[in-house]
Every structure is written in C-alpha cells, then in structure tokens.
Amino acid sequence: MIAYINAQKTEEVLSRNIFRILPGKDSLRAALLSGRKLRVYHGIDPTGPELHLGHATNLILLEKLRRLGHEAILLVGDFTALVGDPTGKYSARVRLSRANIEQNIKTWKNQAGKILDFENEKNPAKILKNSAWLSKLKSREALELLSNFTVGQMIERDMFQKRIKERSPIFLHEFLYPVFQGYDSVAMDVDIEIGGSDQLFNMGIGRVLQRKINDREKFIIATTLLENPKTKKKLMNKSEGSYIAISDKPENMYGKAMSLPDEIVSALLYGATHLSDVEVQEIEKKMAGGKNARDAKMKMAYELVRLYHSEKDAVRAQRDFAKTFQGGGIPQNLMSVFAKTGESLAEIVVRAGKTPNRSVFRRLVAQGAIKDAMGGEKINGINPKFEKEIILKIGKKIFLEIKENRQ
Predict the structure, then answer these.
(1) Of 220, 330, 334, 388, which is least surrounded by CB within 10 A?
(2) By the 8 A CB rule, do 331 and 324 touch?
(3) C-alpha angle with apex 13: 8 to 15, nearest 5 degrees?
(4) 67-83 residue pLDDT tens
(5) Residue 122 belongs to a domain
(6) SS3 of 301, please?
(7) What is the domain count for the chain?
(8) What is the rounded (10 degree) CA torsion for 160, 161, 166, 169?
(9) 326, 355, 375 — which closes off a domain?
(10) Cα–Cα–Cα angle for 260, 53, 95, nearest 5°?
C-alpha cells in the first residue's frame, strides 16, 4: 500500500505537540511525503488497568499517521513491564507479576479503540505484545545487545545521577530496560517511534540498535508532556492518582476536566482532542481577551467527552454539571457504592476512588469539606462510620452515594 501524500496534514503531524524530532524534521517530512508506507509504533507498559489522557496525546498522533496510510502499531510492553522502566523514578519501580500485567491489559484494546481504528478494512491499527520476541531472546543474543552500550552511557541518565548523589541503590536490571525497549524497534523493524519527551533516552537506544542491526534509520517523534504551564507538574500522574482515564464515565470525565486549573485548557485541547489548531487558537484568543475561562473549560470538557464517548454523552454530562455546580443540585448519574453498616467512611470513599487515601479523607473531614449532600450537615469525627444510606458531597464538586449492602 502507498501512503497518502497530504502536505497540510503532514505538517500538522510535525508541528502539534512536538518536543523534538530525530534525526530532524526535514528528513522526516521527506519520508512522510515520499508515498512510502512507513511502520510507526507507540509503546505503553501496562503498569495499571487504565489508559489516560497522557497516553491519548501519542495515540492521537499514531492515528493521524494511520489515516495518512501508514502502518500503526500499539505495542503493549508486557515483557518490559516485568523489568520496570526507571524513567523519571528516583527509586526502583516495583516489579509487576505476570498476573498483574494480564489483568491490567484486559480492556486496553477497547480503551485505545476510542482513538485508534482497529476495525478499518483497508488499514487497521494493530496491537502487539513485546513478550512475543523478548521472552524468546537467548542469553547469547541478550549479551550481544548489551555489548552495544557502556555503563557510562547508562549512568549519565538524570534519575541515576540523582540516586548516586543521594546514595540510593541502582539495580542492574534497570540498565536492561532501555536495551530491551530498544530491541522492540529492531524486532518490528520500524521506521518511526512515537513517545513522550521523557522517553527520549529509551527511544534513542532503539535508534542505535536499529542502525547497527537492521542497518537503517529510525525516526523519533518525542511529544510534549501534558503539563501545567505554571507549575510544570504533569497533569496525568498515575502514581499520585491524579489523571483522567479514557475509560472514565462521561460525567466523571467532564467533572475532572472542569476541576483542573484554568491554565491547562490549551494543553489539553491541543494534546487530547481533535479540535483544529485554528479552533484552539480562537479559544485562546477569547481567554486572552478576558473572557471567563469557565466557558473555555466547558468547551474542553465537552470535547473530551465527545471524543472518548459520544455527542449525546457530552450533552448530558454538560447539562448535569450545570445543574449540579451552577444550580446547586445533585447530579442524576452520580456514582453509587454498597457498604455494610459500621464500615469506615474513609475506607468506602478511598475504595470508590474519591480520595487517594484515608489521610486525605481525614483532612477533608477536619476542614469541614465532607457533608451530607441532602441535609447539608458536615461529617465529623476521627473515624466516622457508615450508619445510613447517604449521598456524600466531598469538596465542592465530588459526590458519592453510599447504599446499604443487605446481603
């Protein structure tokens, strides 16, 4: 199959949410406009069961290249997850078991399918697992891969330098991770790898191996991370539980988007929606002109729900949000959980994912920020218990209905 030659859409691929292109933008542009079908991939390690909007940035780019006629591969790092990616970690990652990994990836194709077209008749996106080749590597082959790099090259990484200064341990298996990830490029014989800017080192290892083993170039498209432009903090952080999952229910996705700070509107519109640059720039102009940022955030939240669910869901989520937070009501589609009488409210709320841990719940109680949504009374006590069916209002925007489990 010959790829489509579309200069305008190609330029969008090369300019939107781009941190760096290796070996260079001009050479990649020439390859994309050559008419040759290129093999492109993005890899994700299954460290959790949910894909989030941070993943969406790269999946949207992968889908754009698929629509231009290129071969698109979503690679599940089910083998590399056993090793653990040290990227951005100042202590070794907790290694996952095979059972953990299989459980985590159970619904990934459905989640990614909200962006990638796996059913396209002419050029469907593919989903592969790197255990298909990495689990079959023999000791001699692994040694040959490792011989392409020095300890000095690995130790230069910023997270390792920080550990050395803090006298924290660096484990040998952590050096294996970028080499194994790099081998993915060789095994699939890819033309392009897409990944976040925090993956530049790992993607660069793959570029070296592709040139040495397959004797050809691999382009790297490093995308910008979804960050707060003021604090530079990642917006989608699994370890802190602060992220919007692609699988979130429409009302939860809308509410989470509206709870984000005003300054992140542009980043999410560019990185996690299909709005054109012109449409996003128009929204930015209105915000710069002093128009209420709430309108822009509502547009952002609406577009997110529309893309990952449907137009109907977006209309309903926006209506419910307006009723709840502008009219003071309780949402129609609030989350419900079951609990037994006498069970700790903190345990119930944490289990429902409405606070990250019990300490946060207790702090909110002490601040008077958790109430009975129907009566308005504040929840009090060091360890309040579930005594009757109740709708909790947690802070200003989070609701949870707790029903009695009579089984």
Answers:
(1) 388
(2) yes
(3) 95
(4) 999 999 999 999 998 88
(5) yes
(6) helix
(7) 3
(8) 30
(9) 326
(10) 110
